Description:
The structure is a homodimer. By secondary structure, chain A is α/β, with parallel strands linked by helices. Helices cover 40% and strands 22% of the residues of chain A. In chain A, the strands form 3 sheets. A 6-stranded mixed β-sheet of chain A has the order 1-3-2-4-5-6, sandwiched between helices. A 4-stranded antiparallel β-sheet of chain A has the order 7-8-9-10, covered by helices on one side. Chain A has a two-stranded antiparallel sheet with strand order 11-12. In chain A, strand 8 (150-153) and strand 9 (158-161) form a beta hairpin. In chain A, helix 6 crosses helix 8. Chain A is elongated. Chain B binds a DNA duplex through residues 169-171, 189, 203-204, 206-207, 209-214, 216-217, 230, 232-233.
Amino acid sequence: MDLNYICYNNKKEMWENMSKIMVIEDDKLICNELAKLLEHHNYEVYLLKDFKEALKEILEVSPDLILLDINIPYINGEVLLQNLRKETNIPVIMVTSINSEIDEALSISYGADDYITKPYNPNILLLRIGAVLKRVKGSFNSPELTYRELKFNYQKGIIKKDNLELELTKNEMIIFSYLLNHQNRIVTREELMTTLWDNSEYVNENALTVNISRLRSKLKEIGYPDVINTKKGMGYILL
Amino acid sequence: MDLNYICYNNKKEMWENMSKIMVIEDDKLICNELAKLLEHHNYEVYLLKDFKEALKEILEVSPDLILLDINIPYINGEVLLQNLRKETNIPVIMVTSINSEIDEALSISYGADDYITKPYNPNILLLRIGAVLKRVKGSFNSPELTYRELKFNYQKGIIKKDNLELELTKNEMIIFSYLLNHQNRIVTREELMTTLWDNSEYVNENALTVNISRLRSKLKEIGYPDVINTKKGMGYILL
DNA sequence: TCCTCAATTAATAAAATCTTCATAAATAAA
DNA sequence: TTTATTTATGAAGATTTTATTAATTGAGGA
């Protein structure tokens, strides 16, 4: 059978959790790079090199997201987008050439969910993809924050070290990620309190202490006993 | 010139004391109200209505704080926040819609310094803004004050010399940073007293002396025995 | 309904830092 | 040199802040 698209990353056992992304792009180089990038981030990638039957194949594959290059020869990406929108709501991220602001405005008015200009930063692309998928599916692979040898996945609520996994509770996660995101300074207890409990009525001061204590002991379990440093009278800081 | 942001309150003579706040929000009504509110409280307000070039303009304006609406169309505020965090530590307060608990949690995981839900009480917003600014006040633009070969990081509460690190306690930090910020003159003991204990009369004169003594011995540890110079009957000065 | 687990409170313990005290040193004045 | 005044230091003791552990509550799942 003569497939018009290529599917990378066909580890079937993972399919259920993976998001399908269809890339419509005529430049082979970019195509391959994109495929690698996305594959590496656990997306299931389909490449489409031209617009022949594009619509049909989109409907067949039913990707979770389409990355659409607007400068495909012979046909205008916007037209495809317009046609697509008549059939489905699959989110589309338009990839436009540099400084074509008009395109940006237009693609959105035609129903693109986001746009990105070439040349783009791969990380930004990934973030945008993640954001769009999250909007649509309510879930997406949130990037993992790393701290030393630890990988912290907020969405899943786990910290990984090699193949050790640590499950954090909601409060522990909030504390850890706040500290993680402010490694450069002392974080006051007050700050953590508002982060955890907003302006909620009165919550015992000690609740925070207890939560930190538990978080510490969990971190200790995987060999990080002294990462949360107490600055008495000032707050905490991640070492 | 076609500015993408608007600057309110441009009384130049006040700029130095004023904090710049960049508001990223698409709703014009809210925008204007916010601008009025903040302006009225002597903030220098910049409005950004969409995300085109947001990052670039943020870096250009270099605000002291960013108020970021998470529900801007086309792109996700979280993505901007993530990207922003790669470049700078400008504090961000996320403004989230009412029933988006996920967003609240996420904004923290992405490194927001605080969040507030719509509709918000203006006074609470102001308080939060004040709190965040106070945290970073003074030290934001130059997180590390240098003194000879010493780097004093107020936010981390440490003094570094090469790879030696000295941890200071709260009082020691207050004293050292005060001296550091007034290197050019003699600082009276009285001044230091009020800085440390405000006006509480009940504190023994000697408490200050003892605190200075300890600070000195710590500085001595890293090879700076004589930096705090006593001017008998007058005060202290940093050599 | 009961059970489980996380979150909070409560009670107590442990630290770290701060202040005081007693006394010594340093400087200025007489 | 002597004396007075100011500052230094070292070691308690006190205070405040944070930790720990256990008990209670409360929500969600079996």
